[in-house]
Design a protein that fits this description.
The complex is a heteropentamer, with two copies of chain A (about 230 residues), one copy of chain B (about 250 residues) and two copies of chain C (about 240 residues). With about 250 residues, chain B is an alpha/beta fold. Chain B contains eight helices and eleven strands. Chain B is globular and about 60 Å long. Chain C is about 40% helix and about 25% strand. In chain C, α6 links the parallel β7 and β8. The chains are: A mainly alpha (about 230), B alpha/beta (about 250), C alpha/beta (about 240). The complex binds adenosine-5'-triphosphate (ATP) (2 copies) and magnesium ion (MG) (2 copies).
Chain lengths: ~230, ~250, ~240, ~230, ~240
C-alpha cells in the first residue's frame, strides 16, 4: 500500500484537485439552489411550496447515482455539457435539496420577533430578510452546512461513473491496471479521509470563531465521554 | 471452484444438476450482443459459449455479471473461476491471468456521431474527446491517439456509444460488433469510421494457478469448434463465424 | 389621532377581537389592561398592521388606513413598537440596532443617523454601551435600547406591549423612567402594562379589555379606585 | 418511459425484492454493529472508546463506494463470500457507524437520574441498561433510525458496482441492452421513490403509535408552513 | 448503624467533602441542612456509593464498606434512595416501577412482588393509580410512588435528597406525611430538606453542613432556637 501511496501521489494529487474543484463548484451552486427552494418552501404561494416540496421529496427519495445518471443524460437533451459540468450540475441539484432543508430550518429557527421588530421599523419583507433574518440564519446554518459539505465531498466520488477522472475515477483506473485493487482503494480512501478531516477542522474553527463574538451558549455541561450510563 | 453462487448474481439458467460441479464464468452483462440482459435474462454469445463449454466438461454453467473494470480482480478474488467476457488478450493482462486459446477474433473500430464529417480516420483523433469502456484494451488504444485528459471512461461500451449523439464525445472505440448492433437497433445516431484499428484475439481468462481447469477449457473449446456447436452459436448472434484465424 | 372602529379579528375559529372601538388623542397616554388572552396584544398589533384585522376600520390622523391601498411599510415608520422580549437584533451592536432602520429604510446618511442615535442613546442612558452587542446587556438595558431604536424613526405614536414584564423587578424602574420621560415630552402612547404605579402617575386614560372587547375606561384615578364593572373590580383585585 | 414501466415490471419487481432483502439484512446487522460501537463509545475503557472513535471517523470520512470496494475485495482475503453477502456486510459496516451515533445520542439523551435510580435499587449496570435505559433509548432512536434506514435503502444501489443485480444493477444492465438509458433510469428512480415513500409512511405511523402511549409532547405550535418569515 | 469517618471527595480540582464525620444510629432520623453547594447531596450519594469517596471510611452495621471488596449492587439494596426529581421509570406503570427491582434484582416471584407492591402503594395512598404511567401523575404522587419503589427492596436505611423541593407547595404535605409515617415505624432515615416543620417534628438530630464540613449538630429544638455558630444562625435566618 505504501508503495502506491509514494509512487503515484502526483496523479492522485491532481485527481484530488479535480475532486475539490468539482465539490466546491457543485456546493456553491447547491447553496444557490438550496436558498431558492428554501424561499419557495416558506413562501405564501401554494404553487411555489408544492414545487419545493416535490423537488425535495424526489431528490431525497432516490439514490444519488440514479440522479447523476438521469441528469447526465437528461440535461443533455436540453443543453450539451461537458462531463465535468454535467457532473457538477447533478451534484448541485442533489445537494441543493438537502441544503434547502438546512436553510429552511435555520431561517425558521430565528425568533419571529426578529421579523416583527424589523417590520415595525418600516422594513419591507425582502429588506428584513436580507438585513435581519438571513445573517442570523446563515450563522446558524454553518454546522449542518459543514456536515452537508463533507457529505457532498464524499458523494462527488460517484461522478466517476460518468467518466470523471477525479479521485475515485483515478483509483478505479489505477487498480484496473496495477491489479492491486485493495491497496489502491485503501490509498484513495486515505485521500478522502484526510480531506474530510481537514475540512472538519476548518468548520469547527469557523464555528468557534463565530461563537466567540456573541456570548457562548453552554451545553448541559457533562462531559459526554465520561457519562456513566 | 469456490464460488458459492447464490443465484443473485445471474439469472437461473434452468434447473441445476446437483451432482455436477459449477462452472462459473463472469462477464459485464452490458456488452450487447456478446453479453447482455433482456427482461432480466442474461444472454448473448459469451453466455452460450460458456454453456456449451460446461456441457462438454460435464459441469453446471453459472454465468455471473461483474462490472468490467473489476472483472479480473473478481477472478483473482475467487468470486468466479473464469471470465468469458470478451476479454482481449494483451501482454498486460497476461501478467495477471492465464488465457485460454482464442475463442473469437474481432476488430477495434472507431465510431462517431452520424452527422460528424470531420473525423475520417484514426489520424483525425488527435486532441479529440474519445469515450471508452473503463479499463478495456480500447482505453489503451485511445491513449495512443489522444491525450489522457480527453478520454472519458464508462461502465459500458454501450453507454459510451450513447454519449456520441449528445456531443459530449467526438469518437468511441469499441468492438465493431457492439457498434454495429447499436447501429442496427437505433438507426441514424452513429456511424463507423475507417478501417478497424486492430484485429484482436479474445480469450477466456482463468487464475494462473488453475492449470487443471485451463486444460479442460481448452479441450472443450476445441471440441465445440470441431463439432459445429461453435459455428451454430456464432451464426445465431452474428450471421457468420467470428472465430477467424491468425 | 388614532380612531379604531368596530374592529374584529379571528385566528381560525377563535375570535380574539369582537368589535373594539377606541380613540387615542394626540399627546395622550393610554394604558391597556386586561387578563391574559383578552386580546390586548392583538389589538396593539392590529394598530400597526402586524396583524390584519378582519372587519372594522382604523383611522390615523383622520385618514383611513386600508392595507390594500396603503404602503404599510411606510405607515409603520410612523408607529414605533416596543416588545415584551425586546427583539433587538443580536448580530448588530447597540448603535447598529438604532441606525439600521433610519439608514436602510429612511435613507438617512449614516453619519447623521449615527449622530442622532448617540443622542437617543444618551437620552435612554445607554450612550456608553453603543458598541456592545445585545447579548452583553441586562434586560432593562435591552429594553431601553429597543425604545431608542423605535424612537430613531421619529414615530408619531409609540406602542408598548408589556415592556417591563420580562424584567427582573429591580430593572423595571429604569425602563419606566424612560417611558415617563417620553410621556412628559408629549409622545402619543398606547401601553399594555400591569404596572399600576406607572398607570396612575403617567396615563391619561386606562382602558380595560375583557374577552376581546373594551369593557370600561376612564381616568386612572377614578378607574382604579372606583371601577363600574364587577369584572373590572375582580381583575384589579387580582393584580393589586 | 411508460412502456418500460409496463413491459419490464416482473424483472424490476424481482430486483426490488433483492434490494429490500439486501437492505433489510444489512440494516439488521448494522443495528447490531451500531449498538456494539455505541457501547464502546460510552464505555469507561479508553481502548474501546478509541476503537469506536476510529471506526466512526474512518467510516464517516470516506465515500461509501470506496468502502464497498475495499470490503468486497478485502473481506475476500479472509473468507470467500458471495457478492450478496459481501455487499450486505459492506453496507452493514457502513450503516453501523451511523447507527452507532444514533444509539449513542439516544442513550445519552436519557436523563442520568434513570441510571442512578436503577443503581440505587441494587440493579447492576448491565441490568439497568437492559431494563431501564435501552427501552427508553430505543424509542427515542426511532425517528433518526427511520431516516437512516431510508438512506440505507438508497445507498444499497451502490452494490451494483460489485455485480449485484438489485434494482440499480438491473437498471444499468437493461439500459445497456435497450439503448434507452434515460427512460430506464427514470423507471428505476421511480421504484426507489415509491419504496422510500412507503417506508416514510410506515415510520411516521410507528412514531405516532408510540407517542400516543405516553403523553404527547407538543412542538412550539406554529404551523411552520404559514410562518411569515 | 452508619458511621462515616473523615470523608473526602473531590470533583476535579473542586473539593466538595472535606473530612466529614457522621454517625447515624438505628431508627434515628437525621436531617441534613446547608446552603446550596455545601455538599449535602454529595454526602448522601457517597453513603450508597453512587459517588465513590476519595478518602475516609464508611461503616454500616459495624462493617466497613470498601468498594473494592464489597458487592455494591447488593449493598445498595439495603439503602433506599429518594431523589428530588423522582426518577421514576417513565416506560413502566406505577406497579411495574415498584416491582421492577424486587423481581429482577431480588428474584422475588412476580406474584408475591405484586402483592407486596399493592400493600406499599396502599400505604403511600397510591393503590388506585397502580396501572397508570408516571406521566399522568402530579409531582406529589410521583414522589410517593418513588418512596414505595424504594421501600419495595426492604431497605434498612432510607436516604432522601430534597424530596419535596421540586413540588408545588400544596403537594409538599402529602409527601411529608408519608415520610413521617415511615419515621414513626422506626426506619433509619437521612433526609436533606429545608422543611423546618418536618425537621422539628420528626428528626432526632439536625446536622448543618457548610463548605464540605459538618459545622454543627444537635437536637432540632435546641439547634433551631439556639445555634452555636454564627454561620448556622445566618443560614437559619435566610431560610426561615
Ligand atoms: N398568531 C396567533 N395565532 C393563533 N392564535 C393567536 C395568535 N396570536 C394570539 N392568539 C390567541 O389570541 C388570544 C388573544 O391573544 P393576545 O396575545 O392578544 O392576548 P393578551 O391579552 O395580549 O394576553 P397576554 O396578557 O397573555 O399577553 C389568545 O387566546 C391567543 O392564544
Ligand atoms: N458530578 C459532579 N461533577 C462536578 N462537580 C459536581 C458534581 N456533583 C456535584 N458537584 C459540585 O459539588 C458541589 C457540591 O454539590 P452538592 O450537590 O453536593 O451540593 P448540595 O449541598 O446538595 O447543594 P444543593 O442544595 O444545591 O443541592 C457543587 O459545587 C457542585 O457543583
Ligand atoms: Mg400580550
Ligand atoms: Mg443537592
Amino acid at each position: 500500500m505504501f508503495d502506491i501511496l509514494l509512487s503515484s501521489y502526483p496523479m492522485f494529487l491532481e485527481a484530488t484537485f479535480l475532486t475539490l474543484r468539482l465539490t466546491a463548484i457543485s456546493l456553491i451552486m447547491g447553496c444557490g439552489v438550496g436558498l431558492l427552494i428554501a424561499f419557495f418552501r416558506i413562501s405564501h404561494s401554494k404553487a411555489l411550496q408544492t414545487i419545493a416540496h416535490v423537488y425535495i421529496t424526489v431528490i431525497r427519495g432516490t439514490p444519488l447515482i440514479v440522479q447523476i445518471m438521469v441528469l447526465y443524460f437528461g440535461i443533455t437533451e436540453i443543453v450539451t455539457l461537458s462531463s465535468f459540468w454535467a457532473g457538477a450540475f447533478a451534484l448541485a441539484i442533489h445537494n441543493g435539496a438537502y441544503i434547502a432543508e438546512i436553510f429552511r430550518g435555520s431561517i425558521q429557527s430565528i425568533d419571529r420577533g426578529q421579523m416583527e421588530a424589523a417590520k415595525s421599523l418600516g422594513m419591507s419583507y425582502p429588506l428584513a430578510m436580507r438585513r435581519i433574518i438571513l445573517p442570523q440564519a446563515f450563522k446558524r446554518a454553518i454546522p449542518p452546512l459543514g456536515n452537508q459539505f463533507i457529505i457532498g465531498l464524499k458523494d462527488s466520488s460517484l461522478v466517476a461513473y460518468v467518466g470523471m477522472q477525479e479521485l475515485w475515477g483515478t483509483g478505479l483506473g489505477e487498480a484496473a491496471s496495477n491489479y492491486r485493487q485493495l491497496d489502491t482503494y485503501l490509498v484513495v480512501g486515505l485521500y478522502y479521509l484526510v480531506l474530510v478531516l481537514i475540512f472538519t477542522y476548518v468548520v469547527n474553527r469557523l464555528e468557534n470563531r463565530l461563537n466567540t463574538g456573541a456570548a457562548k451558549k453552554k451545553s448541559k455541561g457533562y462531559d459526554s465521554a465520561s457519562q456513566s450510563v | 471452484g469456490t464460488s458459492q453462487s447464490t443465484g443473485e448474481t445471474a439469472g437461473e439458467q434452468g434447473a441445476k444438476d446437483p451432482n455436477k460441479k459449477d462452472f462459473t464464468y463472469a462477464m459485464s452483462g452490458v456488452y450487447k450482443p456478446f453479453n447482455f440482459k433482456e427482461n432480466g435474462e442474461l444472454m448473448g454469445f459469451d453466455v452460450e459459449i460458456g454453456q456449451a463449454l460446461a456441457e462438454k466438461m460435464g459441469m453446471n454453467p453459472v454465468p455471473i455479471t461483474n462490472p468490467f473494470e473489476t472483472i479480473i480482480q473478481g477472478l483473482q478474488a475467487k468470486k468466479y473461476d473464469t471470465v468469458i467476457g470478451s476479454l482481449t488478450i494483451t501482454p498486460e493482462r497476461e501478467k495477471a491471468v492465464a488465457f485460454s486459446n482464442v475463442y473469437y477474433r474481432s476488430g477495434a473500430q472507431i465510431f462517431v456521431a452520424a452527422g460528424n464529417d470531420s473525423i475520417k480516420s484514426a489520424d483525425d483523433l488527435k486532441g479529440k474527446r474519445i469515450g471508452v469502456q473503463k479499463s478495456s484494451s480500447y482505453e489503451q488504444q485511445a491513449l495512443k491517439l489522444t491525450d489522457k485528459s480527453n478520454i472519458t471512461t464508462y461502465d459500458s461500451d454501450v453507454t459510451a456509444l450513447m454519449d456520441l449523439p449528445t456531443g459530449r464525445l467526438d469518437a468511441v472505440i469499441t468492438d465493431q460488433m457492439v457498434g454495429f448492433r447499436y447501429m442496427k437497433e437505433v438507426p441514424d445516431k452513429i456511424k463507423d469510421v475507417g478501417e478497424p484499428l486492430s484485429h484482436d484475439n479474445q480469450g477466456i481468462a482463468l487464475r494462473k494457478d488453475d492449470k487443471e481447469l485451463l486444460e479442460k477449457v481448452n479441450k472443450a473449446l476445441d471440441e465445440i469448434i470441431k463439432d459445429g456447436t461453435y459455428q451454430k452459436i456464432s451464426e445465431k448472434w452474428f450471421g457468420r463465424n467470428i472465430l477467424g484465424s491468425e | 389621532m388614532i380612531e379604531v372602529k368596530n374592529l374584529y379579528k379571528s385566528f381560525g375559529s377563535l375570535t380574539v377581537l369582537k368589535g373594539v372601538d377606541l380613540q387615542v388623542g394626540e399627546r395622550e397616554v393610554v394604558v391597556l389592561l386586561g387578563a391574559s388572552g383578552s386580546g390586548k396584544s392583538t389589538l396593539l398589533r392590529c394598530l400597526n398592521f402586524l396583524e390584519m384585522h378582519d372587519q372594522g376600520e382604523i383611522h390615523v390622523n383622520g385618514q383611513r388606513i386600508d392595507p390594500k391601498t396603503t404602503d404599510l411599510n411606510k405607515f409603520r415608520t410612523e408607529v414605533g413598537m416596543v416588545f415584551q422580549h425586546f427583539n433587538l437584533f443580536p448580530h448588530k451592536t447597540v448603535l447598529e440596532n438604532v441606525i439600521e432602520a433610519p439608514v436602510y429604510v429612511k435613507k438617512t446618511p449614516p453619519d447623521r443617523a449615527r449622530e442622532e442615535a448617540y443622542a437617543l442613546l444618551e437620552k435612554v442612558g445607554m450612550r456608553d454601551k453603543a458598541d456592545v452587542y445585545p447579548d452583553m446587556l441586562s434586560g432593562g438595558q435591552k429594553q431601553r435600547v429597543a425604545i431608542a431604536r423605535a424612537l430613531a424613526m421619529k414615530p408619531k405614536i409609540m406602542l408598548f406591549d408589556e415592556p417591563t414584564s420580562a424584567l427582573d423587578p429591580e430593572l423595571v424602574g429604569e425602563v419606566l423612567q424612560v417611558m415617563k420621560q417620553l410621556a412628559k415630552e408629549g409622545m402619543t402612547m398606547v401601553v399594555v402594562t400591569h404596572e399600576m404605579g406607572f398607570a396612575r402617575e403617567v396615563a391619561d386614560r386606562a382602558v380595560f379589555m375583557d374577552n376581546g372587547q373594551i369593557l370600561e375606561q376612564g381616568e386612572p384615578e377614578h378607574f382604579f379606585t372606583n371601577p363600574q364593572q364587577e369584572r373590572t373590580r375582580q381583575f384589579l383585585n387580582s393584580i393589586l
